[in-house]
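[User] I have long wanted to understand how a fold can be written as tokens. Those tokens are not coordinates but codes from a learned vocabulary of shapes. Could you go through the record with me and say what the backbone is doing? Thank you; the sequence and its tokens follow:
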Amino acid sequence: MSKPSHMVMLRWLLWREFTLAWRRKSDVMAMLAFFVIVASVFPLGMDPDSRLLRTIAPGVVWVSALLASILGVGRLFGSDYTDGTLEQMLVTPQPLLLIVSGKILAQWLMTGIPLVVISPLLAMQFGLPAGGTRMLVVSLIAGIPILNLIGAIGASLTLGVRGGGAIVALIVLPLCVPVLVFGAGGNASLIGAVLALTLVFAPWAAASALRIAVE
């Protein structure tokens, strides 16, 4: 299949995912609200020591981003599987790997970027300095795609399983612990290495699991 046809398919996937997200924009807003609420509750329940708040700020924001990302994982392939769209996609001449990658990219554009944009505002309530805020934003830019990629694996493995949402969390959370540790510690080089690995292996693993689930 030619490269232009791949780009046409990718653009169509992005357009479709954005259209569906606009129709269900309450889901995206609920995820962002969850992110803000979880990150905002921590300072209220702790000693209002400015040094302590600055120390825990990256970890709190990262934990909040991880939990918020998991909320949207179950819908990544679930609705397409339920209405038969996923099965139709499998019989198209386009590779399933491209379809999976397009849906993950759309998920990051719709949810990952808003999380990154909101994070500096949340960092302000912890009194995080400008340098720490920049480091936090950079780590989230590289780290949230990893959460989306790992989440895609969990969503594909539990496709069609009753109570799949809880099982996805059990699969995804342990796999995301290294990313959480590196992100909260501001280790951009290690996050970049993990991102490179997940970009190579996660779409392939998710596509393989989807094919097995549908067949």
In short: Residues 11 and 48 are 48 Å apart (CA to CA). The chain has a mean pLDDT of 84.
